[in-house]
């Protein structure tokens, strides 16, 4: 498939267009799978220095236009991918964000990267991902590296990547063993968990400043299923064995974790979803040059933090980009 053949149509975001990749029958038996590539329409005639491909997290989709504007202002064409059964790509009857193996994402990631590379031949592509996307992308990159197919990827930026399961080692071990059994018998069974306050800290209907589609990103998230979490744990194990991504990586995270089911002001300045100590612990598994920066007062999505906090995060990213794209 060539870029010229892509059917770019208006997106749900003003100033963006989208193309739907039809992926055929879902290997997990939920109809026809699709993924949606979104691009920010250029607003100037400035030369493009590179491109960015962004991947969202669980119970999420691309709506972070401020992040796209940041990259565009620095000469990067911006693209984002809603993975199969996620966001724009989810179809009627499909379990939100469900996949039994993260390897299945390789199909749409390969298609998206090929489309971006063809649109910007010879230019470097920076991969950016949040949370679960920050687990998906490194493992996909590792598989590409084994095929000697690193180019045109020139770097990786991970925003609070999900590198391990929350909780004590004993609890993680018991949970992992149980998931292996349950995923075979009842993969779509939901794991009951109380809703947290995170979504409300982001959306304008709560204490946040962001507008997003509550059908695509509910304030309480989507149910976590046994089969999907089993796929997550297999991916964690692969990461923990160590990767060799062969590109520099920047990891941004909060400086604090605060697990709570009730809102307080502390919820505005901590990661309510992941254990940031685990992110720090496993960052070295990526291989190659890795820079990890804790951002004081950051939320789980660092780039959706309070204004002064995300200003600091963008300064860190800007500095890293300047040092790693100077010759591009």
From TrEMBL:
It holds the Pfam family Hydrolase_4. GO terms for molecular function: hydrolase activity. The keyword Hydrolase applies. Residues 47-255 form the Serine aminopeptidase S33 domain. The keyword Hydrolase applies. Keywords: Hydrolase. Transmembrane segments: none annotated. PANTHER family: PHOSPHOLIPASE-RELATED. This is Alpha/beta hydrolase. It comes from Actinospica acidithermotolerans.
């Amino acid at each position: 498939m060539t870029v010229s053949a892509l059917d770019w149509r208006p997106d749900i975001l003003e100033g963006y267009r989208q193309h739907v990749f039809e992926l055929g029958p879902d290997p997990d038996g939920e109809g026809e799978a699709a993924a949606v590539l979104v691009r920010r329409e250029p607003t100037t005639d400035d030369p493009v220095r590179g491109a960015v491909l962004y991947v969202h997290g669980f119970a999420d989709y691309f709506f972070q236009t401020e992040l796209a504007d940041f990259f565009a202002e620095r000469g990067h064409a911006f693209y984002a991918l809603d993975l199969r059964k996620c966001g724009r790509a989810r179809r009627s009857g499909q379990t939100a964000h469900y996949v039994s193996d993260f390897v299945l994402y390789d199909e749409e990631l390969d298609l998206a990267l090929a489309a971006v590379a063809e649109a910007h031949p010879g230019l470097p592509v920076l991969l950016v991902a949040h949370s679960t996307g920050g687990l998906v992308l490194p493992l996909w990159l590792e598989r590409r590296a084994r095929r000697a197919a690193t180019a045109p990827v020139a770097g990786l930026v991970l925003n609070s990547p999900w590198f391990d399961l929350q909780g004590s080692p004993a609890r993680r071990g018991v949970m992992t063993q149980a998931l292996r059994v349950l995923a075979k018998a009842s993969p779509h069974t939901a794991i009951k968990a109380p809703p947290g306050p995170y979504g409300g800290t982001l959306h304008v209907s709560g204490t946040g400043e962001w507008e997003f589609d509550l059908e695509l990103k509910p304030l309480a998230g989507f149910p976590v299923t046994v089969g999907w979490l089993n796929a997550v744990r297999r991916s964690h194990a692969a990461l923990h064995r160590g990767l060799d991504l062969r590109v520099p990586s920047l990891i941004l995270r909060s400086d604090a974790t605060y697990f709570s089911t009730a809102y307080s002001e502390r919820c505005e300045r901590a990661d309510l979803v992941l254990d940031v100590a685990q992110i720090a612990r496993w960052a070295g598994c990526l291989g190659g040059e890795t820079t990890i920066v804790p951002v004081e007062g950051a939320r789980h999505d660092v780039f959706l933090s309070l204004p002064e906090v995300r200003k600091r995060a963008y300064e860190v990213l800007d500095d890293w980009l300047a040092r790693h794209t100077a010759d591009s």
